[in-house]
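To whoever is covering the structure queue this week,

Two jobs came back overnight. Logging them here so there's a record in the thread.

Job A:
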Amino acid sequence: MLYHNCLKCLEQSIGTEACHSRRGLKNCWPDIDDEHRRLSDVQCSLVRKKNHYTNFQKRVQGALKDVEKSIANENTTLRRLEEAHQKDPEDAEIRSLINKRKQTIREHQEVYGIVKSQLEKNIARLYETDYGIAVVTERVGQLDTERADALREKEGAVKAAQ
């Protein structure tokens, strides 16, 4: 989606470039400014998205660590219960606790899988957003150059008229 939006912006830029070749740079100043303003807005939006994705990634990584710790603690408790059960295999209460711990571990592993999947999706969005920022930044740089060229052309026309 983001990639498509960046391509759309660049396709509109081609129209601006065609204007330059037809009318000369100094007459395209409003087109350059309009495109620059539009792309600057897109760039700001992309940077906000990137910041959101980065913050989300930090929270998800923290959640993953919490789930990993919880699984490790549950595994430790399970091992101790199994050791106690080996000493007293007839104790039904210990057997029940072992089954509950195993269920808890399975649930934590399921949560871990879901959180990990969210992290991977977020990383993909982050890369896509970085690409969009790079594309828009490159075009904004081109527009800055075109704006400077138009200004020089305009100044040259003013000097020639004097």
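Job B:
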Amino acid sequence: MCAAERHETTVFSCTYHSYNSFSTCRFPSSAPRRYHPRFLWGTYPMLNGLWLGFFVVATISALVQWLVGGNAGIFAAMVESIFAMAKLSVEVMVLLFGTLTLWLGFLRIAEKAGIVDWLAKVLGPLFLRLMPEVPPGHPALGLITLNFAANALGLDNAATPIGLKAMRSLQELNPSKTAASNAQILFLVLNASSLTLLPVTIFMYRAQQGAPDPTLVFLPILLATSVSTIVGLLSVAFMQRLRLWDPVVLAYLIPGALLLGTFMAFLGTLSAAALAGLSSILGNLTLFGL
């Protein structure tokens, strides 16, 4: 997006890049080059300040270890760590690219096969009561379902653009351009709590770091995200005064709560070794089954 910025008598045109924190400017040959503070600090001062803080804190910590602790090798260790982390980031990126490609392909197959549309129809009555301002059949409902499906598979990188499209679609129904609607707030909370049935990305990270059993965290993540989703939904329902005692809503919530409570009660009877074995078996079976 091009804009004209005026600084005293100097006029120049600038292009702001939305994907990072720099701007490119074209100055007339006769105009003195006076930089606006925004160009020096960037378009996103909070993020720039955060990154600058990382480097400042690291430098101060290294100086303290050198001057106070007498650790003369701290700077060599920092340089070595920079190159090691650069190598690790590339390795993680390559493995993440392959993992996302595989599971996004499965998600695309499910979408083409009509599974996502079927899920939208199944969850449609629930969404219509939790988000009453969204009319039936609105495209936002399909995007919300697709976002939840990506989150359920642990594809958080893929769920982000889908969630942005869903928020943009919900914004079309929002009468206010400066405040989030109730539907947007509820969607944001449920998206953040993110019920995760199969944390594929976490499995990938653990496998890349050499974990002997990457799926061992399946049960803890499943229980934690289930509880966080329920708490998030109840909190938003209380603030927005949603009718959770509606028979349709109860038809969705009660079976899920009973199933989760029964499962947690069963897990409470198992030893630590049995829990680890069960988590590994369920994680691998779910991964293989999908």
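Note for Job B: The two ends are 43 Å apart (CA to CA).

Please reply-all if you pick these up so we don't duplicate work.
Q.
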